[in-house]
Amino acid sequence: MSESIKTVLPESEIPRHWYNINADLPEPMAPVLHPVTHQPVGPSDLAPLFPQAVIEQEMSTEREVEIPEPVRDAYRQWRPSPLYRARRLEKALGTPARIYYKYEGVSPAGSHKPNTAVAQAFYNKAEGVKRITTETGAGQWGSSLALAGAMFELDIEVFMVKVSFNQKPYRRAFMESFGASCVASPSNVTEAGRAVLAQDPESTGSLGIAISEAVELAAQRDDTKYALGSVLNHVLLHQTVSGLETMRQLEQLDDYPDKIIGCTGGGSNFAGLAFPFLGERLRGGPATEFIAVEPASCPTLTKGRFAYDWGDTSHLTPLTKMHTLGSGFVPPGFHAGGLRYHGMAPQISHLTELGYIHPRAYGQLECFDAGLTFARAEGIIPAPEANHAVKATIDAALACRESGESKALLFNLCGHGHFDMQAYTDYLAGNLKEEAPSAAEQSMALAGLPTI
């Protein structure tokens, strides 16, 4: 096996198609329902929010979806991203495991999010849209859409969850540098935001609230659409460019993963890496294990209910069947802001129910500890979100040390921690704590699920 550290591909090998796992599902997913009639939604129901091309992708069952040339051209700025062999981490852990990580932190926004932001901006621009509204948690999605808006000359309005807005001021500066506007959510800009503030003036916000605000604005103007950075089928589809590249890179190394690991908030990071490999398994390929890692403070897959729920707090969005903590759930303000969402991608939820994906939950302190172990070995400080995948990978590597097995472990390092140094400062000073929601809080939020 090659002794190289980094495996790179030329720009000519950027995939020409995204992979759609809907084509290979052993059982079809539950339909998306209209929030009022509870009947399956059609393209016309989604038209006020999304461009037609995106709606078609959301409902597609074609295995391959062509990547438009303008999108591939924009991808060339950072794609193909490198695949690293974590040899120094392997040595530090004393493990026979072969640890690989796909590094999406090389994108201009510092994460995997531009893979779909660029695509959604392109499709909106092609249909004459002038403005896009969105939400963001940690700010990686808002940063990516701001970048894509600058590329395609679109106005971008971002509602950023208030706790992250206060924790990460440089994310706001990043968005504004690319011409986007960024508002702390809940805000006084929308009826949805004002309603939350009326009940709780000190609300720290949630992704569900921020989605409500963004959707409300998008529905008010014909020249405006809404964009989502995770959860929905078309978003996960766009992210598979990462996994498809990784398959080619591992072919060059003559290796194949025994375990694939990713952090999960809404699911796009995990799915982008895992779905092309999971598709191979569904078609009779190797029995790779797929591990989705979430925060114990927002345990959607491990403690949520698989049920129909709204994607937002104000119940403006369609109903999807997913693992959920309830649309009214407001997670604690832990530092992995990108993972603070009450629901999980329907595709990931469906495959978890079928037994193909195995979820785990970790507290933020053990994840920061794992992140520092990784950083001191590999020289990259991960984003707090990615630390969850790092923690699970280290656990798997230590299990190999105990068993003596040399398994191939692959995870997605979805971003860097350059905008998150306050979180590391707080951790090193001993100022971080675990903030798990109570059973009563979870029960109360789940009590609000719709009756279908």
UniProtKB/TrEMBL annotation:
Its cofactor is pyridoxal 5'-phosphate. InterPro entries: Trp_synth_b-like, Trp_synth_b_CS, Trp_synth_beta/beta-like, TrpB-like_PALP, TrpB-like_PALP_sf. Keywords: Amino-acid biosynthesis, Aromatic amino acid biosynthesis, Lyase, Pyridoxal phosphate, Tryptophan biosynthesis. It catalyses: (1S,2R)-1-C-(indol-3-yl)glycerol 3-phosphate + L-serine = D-glyceraldehyde 3-phosphate + L-tryptophan + H2O. It comes from the Bacteria. PROSITE patterns: TRP_SYNTHASE_BETA. Pfam families: PALP. The keyword Lyase applies. The modification N6-(pyridoxal phosphate)lysine is found at residue 113. Signal peptide: none annotated. It is an enzyme of class 4 (lyase). Its EC number is 4.2.1.20. Residues 78-415 form the Tryptophan synthase beta chain-like PALP domain. Pathway: Amino-acid biosynthesis; L-tryptophan biosynthesis; L-tryptophan from chorismate: step 5/5. The beta subunit is responsible for the synthesis of L-tryptophan from indole and L-serine. Belongs to the TrpB family. Tetramer of two alpha and two beta chains. This is Tryptophan synthase beta chain. It comes from Spiribacter pallidus.
